[in-house]
Amino acid sequence: MSSEITVEEQQKMVGDFLEGLAKSFGLEASAENVSADDDSFEVNLVGDKTALGALIGPRGSHLVALHEVTKTMLQRRLPGANRARIRVDVAGFRQRRREILQAYVQELAKSVLGDGVEKGLETMNAADRKVVHDTANEIEGISTISVGDEPRRRVVLIPSKA
Amino acid sequence: MSEQEGTTAEEVLLYLIAQLVEHPDQVELEIEESDTKISLMAKVSSEDIGRVIGKRGRVANSIRTLVRAAAVKDGVEVEVDFSD
User: Can you give the pTM of this predicted structure?
Assistant: First the structure.
């Protein structure tokens, strides 16, 4: 039974966990299910934006910690279960960053298509690189590679050979 | 819910630990206050110490980050350690 836990049930556990954490911070917040598919889901904690800043931190550093403890909580509660990949957001912070990154990649792809010269992005974490790969690979004539070793790994947009 | 008993930092630390351990009944918190900062020592069962520390201390560091964020609300600096 425990290995058959659904993505919806896992999403509920994560939502409850985040709401409980917000309460321990003395914050009123509610968990919103952003998306879910077969093997991943996203939960966004919404409430007073200024107060929720404590859970986002400088350049999202607290959000990284929040993701880590949330993932760990799920591992502890569901040992051996088929766990989904989780994405945790607070006040839509990640979502906004994702949109900005997508727009930037689209602009960069245009310039690669224009002059046929590959262009590299700055070093990024795996989650951001995935956004870059996914966005760029949807554009015809562009493909991507990752170069360098962690933590200095980065994506390069290259014109695909016709 | 009930009123908060400890500081925000203590509440957050206890909440996170309770969510991660097998034996929440064996969690104890030792608090040491000095003029400039508060030291929180979380004691958990020996079975659970690995759970709150994690690989290369990743879980412990994430807990520290969140507890320090909570301490900002209390207007203090906190140090968090774990033992069994």
Answer: 0.86
